[in-house]
Amino acid sequence: MKTTVHIQNLKCGGCASTITKNLTALDDVSDVIVGVEDDSVTFDYSEVHTLDVVKKTLAELGYPEDGERNSLTDKAKSYISCAVGKITK
Questions:
Q1: For the segment 24-45, what is each residue's pLDDT rounded down to a tens digit?
Q2: How many Cα atoms within 13 Å fall on the side-chain side of residue 7?
Q3: How many angstroms separate the CA atoms of 29 and 22, rounded?
Q4: Helix axes 72-88, 48-61, angle to 10 degrees
Q5: Are 9 and 75 a contacting pair, CB within 8 Å?
Q6: pTM, full prediction
Q7: Burial of residue 64 (number of CB atoms within 10 Å: 0-12, 13-18, 19+)
Q8: Labelling 32: which of 3, 6, 54, 71 has CA 20 to 30 A away?
Q9: CB crowding 1-26: b at 16 or more within 10 Å, else e
Q10: Which of these, 33, 28, 69, lies nearest to 50 by C-alpha position?
Q11: Quick one: residue 84, left, alpha or beta (phi over 0 = left, psi -120 to 50 = alpha)?
């Protein structure tokens, strides 16, 4: 199945790099495409529970799903993920 999740705190290519690296490492996730312009993450998966795993992983990285709680802590995590993504890009 292919799906798109719209997220918060996506700022740049560093963010996209962090998200791509972390989601690609998950079992059952492939073809990850991060759309910085529209704050989206598109990916393929086959198991129903994988979507929840991806959303949880994104939130833990500081990129919660659009409409979900976006605390100061989540925003801080995203800035750190962004910086790490720029360094390891």
A1: 999 999 999 999 999 999 999 9
A2: 31
A3: 10
A4: 90
A5: yes
A6: 0.83
A7: buried
A8: 71
A9: eeeebebbbbeeebbbbbbbbbbeee
A10: 28
A11: alpha
* Cα–Cα distance for residue pair 29/11, rounded to 1 Å: 23
3-state secondary structure string across 42-79: EEECCCHHHHHHHHHHHHHHCCCECCCCCCHHHHHHHH
Query: What backbone torsions phi and psi does residue 55 show, to the nearest 5 degrees?
Result: -60, -40
Burial of 41 (0-12, 13-18, 19+ CB in 10 A): buried
Q: Give the distance between the most distant pair of CA atoms in the chain.
A: 33
pLDDT at 89 over 60: no
Of 64, 67, 39, the closest CA to residue 54 belongs to: 64
Neighbours of 68 (CB within 10 A): 14
